[in-house]
Write a structure and sequence with these properties.
The chain is built from 6 helices and no strands. It is mainly alpha-helical. The protein has a domain at 3-69.
């Protein structure tokens, strides 16, 4: 006789564990599928083969994908996060009413014409603004 049938609380814990494992499995599966489509280094035929492999042998396919291309998944996620951060930073700068490059250069030229800054300071500040 199994211990789980004698103790209903063990049945509950086992069921919760299986639900948790299933949710983690679904999450990993979707991450792998997203990464397959996100990969620019994989071409159409290779993407199709990976998808077919994952569809017909899901556990083995995902495991092999994680072993073979797990490092690429990390690189893709880092690149996506950096691109998203850059877009957010650009949006904040644009929305916050930051001055444009032309405005900053005009102010800098005005300071130079008034003699408030030297030619060397002007060139250094101009290079900073333009980069």
């Amino acid at each position: 006789m199994l211990a789980a049938t004698s103790y209903p609380i063990l049945d509950l814990f086992w069921t919760m564990l299986m639900i948790f494992v299933f949710i983690v499995w679904i999450f990993i599966l979707f991450q792998v599928i997203i990464d397959i489509f996100r990969s620019h280094d994989l071409h159409g035929f290779a993407k199709a083969l990976w998808l077919i492999f994952i569809i017909f042998l899901p556990f083995l396919g995902v495991l092999l994908y994680l072993i073979a291309r797990g490092h690429k998944m990390q690189e893709h996620q880092i690149q996506a996060a950096q691109a998203q951060k850059q877009q957010f930073d650009d949006y904040v700068k644009q929305t916050a009413g930051g001055t444009s490059t032309a405005d900053e250069l005009a102010k800098l030229a005005d300071l130079k014409s008034k003699g408030a800054i030297s030619d060397a300071d002007y060139e250094a500040a101009k290079a900073k603004i333009l980069t």
